[in-house]
Amino acid sequence: MKSFISQLIKTIEEKDSCSVVGLDPQLEYIPDEIKKAAFKKEGNELKNAAKAIFDFNKQIINIIHPHVGIVKLQIAFYELLGFWGTKAYSDTIKYAKKKGLIVIGDIKRGDVPHTAEAYATAHLGVVKFNGRQEISFEVDAVTVNPYLGSDSVFPFIKLARKNGKGVFILVKTSNPSSKEIQDLKCKNKRIHQIVASQVNKWGKDLIGKKGYSSIGAVVASANPNIVDNLRNIMPNSYFLVPGYGAQGGRLKNIMKCFNRDGYGAIVNSSRGIIYAHNHPAWKKKHGLKDWQCAVEEAIIKMNKELKEAINHNKGNSS
Amino acid sequence: MKSFISQLIKTIEEKDSCSVVGLDPQLEYIPDEIKKAAFKKEGNELKNAAKAIFDFNKQIINIIHPHVGIVKLQIAFYELLGFWGTKAYSDTIKYAKKKGLIVIGDIKRGDVPHTAEAYATAHLGVVKFNGRQEISFEVDAVTVNPYLGSDSVFPFIKLARKNGKGVFILVKTSNPSSKEIQDLKCKNKRIHQIVASQVNKWGKDLIGKKGYSSIGAVVASANPNIVDNLRNIMPNSYFLVPGYGAQGGRLKNIMKCFNRDGYGAIVNSSRGIIYAHNHPAWKKKHGLKDWQCAVEEAIIKMNKELKEAINHNKGNSS
User: Fold this and answer.
1) Chain-chain contact of B122 with A149 (C-beta, under 8 angstroms)
2) How many CB pairs below 8 Å do chains A and B form together?
């Protein structure tokens, strides 16, 4: 039976990388040559813009796929371009899968059960009608917002089980205001701890390779005490850790997201990789030419830093 | 200066209706004649399905727009059909606006600030690139999930202010599991009360007609004590109340969402209106023919029931 977590861990081992490249395309940072080609045709500007971001994504995927096995698409940057953007989202997923990548849809959906079913089917399931079956968005896993409680999460978990997909529940996010609700204390437990306990419980039925579950958690690494505690509450959950690079995640804190076995976390960088060519140091050295080299150097560097830190971590525990 | 709330109240007065029709199209409930026409053409099935739901929506809008001034689109049912569904979402918004309706996008988005900006721009803003401006989804207001805290909500409020749009924050949702997080008590205040206080604060700068704010709240009516209390915490916020009909919202409880002035709430019914022809009583009397009449009767009945209840409410307070 297909299992998201087993496939994820297999991919991490094969690529020797727990990096996730965030494909969050923003037109203003995309190299001019790609934009010029996409906007050559007069007409619907949203369509042209969507073409530019899909062309950019394809090039990024071509560069990174020898080095990394996982990409994450933040759907907001596609929705920004209307349904043409949604088409670029769908096309990018297909292209990434063709290159053998695991694709996480960062959708952060959450709704009442009947509606959550529609979202879950759209992103993790099969749409059935008229005697046929279609797949709308063929990702391997999604992120889900838990504010509406377990009945809003179950439709995603149900399809994760049925179709060998994964779910990452928002437990503690990386933005400063995350403390306002997520860190509130109720009967000696913070909200993020309460959600984490649920994630741990929900994940128990979907255990795969090395004892990890297909139900994971989004966990920001900024506060090491919180991370340590969440690691304890959810020993079997993979953490999707945002913010390597741009969001200021420090390597030392990020390491706390891993278990001592060197597994347990995947680490995302979006802007730090796909716009590496806009980094002042690179710009000064090369200008905006050879942007592909900047992207490749950035992902190789990230892999190396994470690997060294994980090995150091393992050394400390043995 | 354009104000969502002033426009909303003007529309409510003109149409003499605070009903919201939820355009949540599900293929299995759409009349066969519409589906047959849409699927006549061989080819992409998601495209045909999206055509069916857009055709259905147009007919629904034609029937209801003399009776009601507000529609709400649950985007999940469009996402279900991939980017073709998103096109049907966009086309439906345009058609509804052409008929003079106020359109609420029930998107329940919520993300870190940088990403929330992209969502807010997609749904309440103007996309600027290449020296041009485009609008992706032209709704008048959206629903937003507050789990990530105020910095995740501000991008929506900022564009609401700038572009005369509205925001409805999820405060207390209608699903049974909503109690798991939303009803938790932290220092004598429940999470939904804490969110409600923020909504009240955020709304203070966007006051329009009759003292109401363009920043509203999604409030389920099931628990009258909760509703009473939320009405007190957010005296100036319009409540978007789900579940008239299908979700079992009782008229007596729903009335608690209104202020004594007869304003303060809009009440949504989705399945109860747009699939009125599937109601056993109607089916028995007419079969599936004349489905349009069933829809029209249902919205007229809903308007009448709400109006009588509001007048009764006002009578009690004078």
Assistant:
1) no
2) 228
**DSSP character at residue A174:** S
List B10, B58, B97, B108, catalytic entry = B108
- Alpha carbon distance B212, B263 (integer Å): 9
A248 vs B: CB within 8 A: no
Task: Phi first, then psi: give them for residue B18, nearest 5 degrees.
Answer: -105, 20
| Beta carbons of A182 and B149 less than 8 Å apart | yes
Structure confidence at residue B73 (pLDDT): 98
What CATH topology corresponds to A4-317? TIM Barrel (3.20.20)
Range in A42-46, A50-54, B64-68 the model is least confident about:
A42-46
Q: Which whole number is the average pLDDT over B265-277?
A: 95
- pLDDT tens sequence across A204-230: 999 999 999 999 999 999 999 999 999
Is B313 an interface residue toward A (CB < 8 Å)? no
Q: How far apart are CA B94 and CA B87, in angstroms?
A: 11
Is residue B295 pLDDT above 50, yes or no?
A: yes
Mean pLDDT of B72-77: 98
Task: Specify the 3-state DSSP secondary structure of A6.
Answer: helix
Tokens of A187: 């009967």
- List for chain A the helix, strand, coil content (%; round to 5): 55, 20, 30
A37 and B CB contact within 8 Å = no
3-class SS shares of chain B: helix, strand, coil, % to 5 = 55, 20, 30
In the structure encoding, which two tokens stand for residue B294, read together? 């069933």
Catalytic residues of A: 108
**Band of the pLDDT at A249, cuts 50, 70, 90?**
low
Interface subset of A 76-135, CB within 8 angstroms of B: 76-77, 79-87, 89-90, 108-113, 115-116, 118-119, 121-123, 127, 129-130, 132, 134
| Beta carbons of B184 and A174 less than 8 Å apart | no
Does the beta-carbon distance from A181 to B115 stay under 8 Å?
no
pLDDT of A286 reads 77
Give the residue from A24, A112, A124, A221 with the most B CB atoms within 10 Å of its CB, the best one to mutate.
Answer: A112
Looking at residue A282, its pLDDT comes to 82
* Structure confidence at residue B317 (pLDDT): 57
Contact between residue B166 and residue B124 where contact means Cβ atoms under 8 Å apart: no
Q: Is the pLDDT of residue B178 over 90?
A: yes
Break chain A into its structural domains and give their ranges.
4-317
CA dihedral B207, B209, B214, B216 (to 10 degrees): 100
Give the one of A35, A111, A186 whose C-beta lies nearest to B186's C-beta. Answer: A186
Mutate to test the interface with A, among B40, B47, B90, B108 (most CBs of A within 10 A): B108
Residue A246, pLDDT > 80, answer: no
| Closest chain A C-alpha to B148 CA, distance in angstroms | 5
Fold of B4-270: TIM Barrel (3.20.20)
Shortest Cα distance, chain A CAs vs residue B258, angstroms = 23
Confidence band for B129, pLDDT divided at 50, 70 and 90 = confident
Give the pLDDT mean for B98-114. 98
More confident residue, A247 or A301: A301
